[in-house]
Structures are given as C-alpha cells and as structure tokens.
Amino acid sequence: MRLMMRHGCSIVRVALVLGVVTASTGAVAQETCPAAPPVVRDISLPRFYGDKDGSMIDPERDAAHKAAVAPLTAFVRAVTQDADKALRRSKPEAQKALASCTLQWIATWAKGDAWLGTMATRQAEYQRKWDLAGVALAYLKLKPFATAEQRQMIEPWLKRFADVARAFFDDRERQRNNHWYWLALGAAAVGMAAESPQHWEMAREIMRDAARDIGTDGTLKAEMTRKSRALLYHAFALTPLVVMAELAASRGEDWYGFEAGAVHRLAKLTIDGLNAPEAFDARVGVAQERPINGRAGWVQLYRARFPDRVVTAPDIPEGHRWIGGSAVVLREVLGRR
C-alpha cells in the first residue's frame, strides 16, 4: 500500500488492484476500502531554496524536501483526486462508495491528530497550512456523503488544524505574504465545511489584508522581491484569493470587491504577465524563468465568473491538491449550495 501511494495511486485504484469491486455496480465496496496510510503528526522539512530571496531552487535541498514531504503529498493528492472522481461518477451508488472510502481516510487521519504535532522547521509550518486548504476543500466537496460519526471526527479536527496553522502567524515577525493568503483559504474552507463562523471571519479579515497589499498597479510588494520568480509568485498568491472569493460568492459575499476591486487588479496584472512575460521582465528588471508556472485552477474560476475580464486566458491546469483538487468540480459543488 505504501509503495503504491508514493506513485500517486488513488484510493479507488488501490482498491481495484486488490480486486475489491462489487459485481452489481462496479463500485468499490465500503467494507473493503483500503487502509489509510500511517498518520503523520510531526513534520520536519528542509527549505528548498538556496538564496534568501526565494528565487533559486537548490537541487540537493529540493530532492531532500521532496523525499521528506512524500507521505503528505501522497495522502493529500489521493483524497483530493478521489473526491473529484467520486463526484464525477455517473451512478449515485458509485459516488457514495468512493466518497465513503475517501472520507474514511480523512477520518482516520483526523482521529490520529494528523498535522497537529511538532513542526520542526518553518517549511513544515508552511506545508501544514497548504495541506489544511487541500484537505478541508476535499472534505467540503464530500461532506454530503459523510456520516454523523465521520462529521464528529473530522470537523473538530479541522478547526484545531486551522488554529495551530494560524498560531504560527501570530508572531508578527513572520512575513505575511502569500503564505498568509493560503492560511486564509484553509480557514475559509474550514469555516464552510465545519460550519465555523470564527474561521470564516478569520478568512475574511485576511482577505481584507491581502486586498490592502495589492498595489494600484496590481503588484504585490512582497512578491516583487522574488526576482526571476516574481510572476510565478503573483500567480501563486492570486490562487487562494480567487478560490476564497468563490467560496464567499457562494454565500452571497463579494470579496472580489474589497479595496475597490483589488483582486481584479492582481488578476489583470497576472494574466497580462502570463500572456506576455517579457513585459513582466521589464517591470521586475529581471528575466522571469521560463516556462512560467501559472499555478492551477484560478483562471477557470475567474473566467467563469468574469468572462469579459479574461480575453486571452493563460493555459494552466484546472486543479491542484492545495485547492482541493479540480476547481471545476469545486465550482459545481458551490453552485449546488
């Protein structure tokens, strides 16, 4: 099981390998869900950049980081991918079966206090809040399938998860840049999924902070210091802001409008930069690394809501584990709320 997880096998693929498929429906039987991988409570991750500005990845550090984070990557990737697969199944019984297995995995890690142990490095703290966002959004997608017992296990854990992730930033010496915004996405997802007004309000206040950080020209001062990766980090910072704004829109709140539409300014700058990176080169004064990683999911969400603002859309994937999987599936889920 552990070996298969390293290769990114989803829960249902593991179950199929084990031959546990019902004859009548082709769905994975609930009683034969594969066991969840060992719970990870304590995290120690090395930084993968070789310079203080966070613009140059050190190959040796990067390899060490990927090896150390592999169990977390595998778990979050599996539950987010299978949340999407469950919702894309055409038969209700197949949806329920895969959703049940995925929820069992999340509940197992909740019971084991995953991510709630010692974070030995700053990079571990960063990882914790990214994973919070991914798992909480996956649970939000699957919540209609959760049993009362699963809800009682998962939802209080998600609240603790968000609280310990927030505590790192209570030290005001911590830089509140894109990491702060990713924490907010996790808090927003917890606010919705666990029905926690406290965490929803936390997300709203951080979203206001982010809007104030966005300049009149759409730039983020903290991300402009990233030199050759400045454009990448503008896209990286924009991603949780757009996803959060969509969560808010599903509740009738306009977070896009904060600070006179600050997110729109950041989106325009980022879209223009991804479509014509040479202009961003001149703005930063350093050539941006090519190909530029535009991150994932935010274009699909932003274009669906504001088609007139996206004349030519950069080509980016529709999903990533840190936004709970597919942004397209998330939009469908939010539309049903």
Q: Would you identify the regions where 5 or more consecutive residues have pLDDT less than 50?
A: 1-9, 12-30
Provide the β-strand percentage band.
Answer: under 5%
Mean pLDDT: 90
Tally of DSSP β-strands? 2
- How many H/I helices? 14
The rounded Rg comes to 20 Å
Spatial ordering of strands, largest sheet? 1-2
Q: Sheet bearing the most strands, described?
A: 2 strands, antiparallel
The shape is globular
Amino- and carboxy-terminal Cα gap: 36 Å
Helix content: 55-70%
Structural class: mainly alpha
- Taken in chain order, the helices and strands follow as HHHHHHHHHHHHHEEH
Overview of this structure, please?
- Mean pLDDT is 90; it is low at 1-9 and 12-30.
- The protein is globular.
- The chain has helices at residues 2-6, 11-17, 59-88, 92-111, 122-142, 148-167, 178-193, 197-213, 221-224, 230-249, 258-275, 277-284, 298-305, 327-335, and strands at 319-320, 325-326.
- It has 14 helices and two strands, in the order αααααααααααααββα.
- Strand 1 and strand 2 form a beta hairpin.
- The protein has 337 residues and is an all-alpha fold.
- Strands 1-2 form a two-stranded antiparallel sheet.
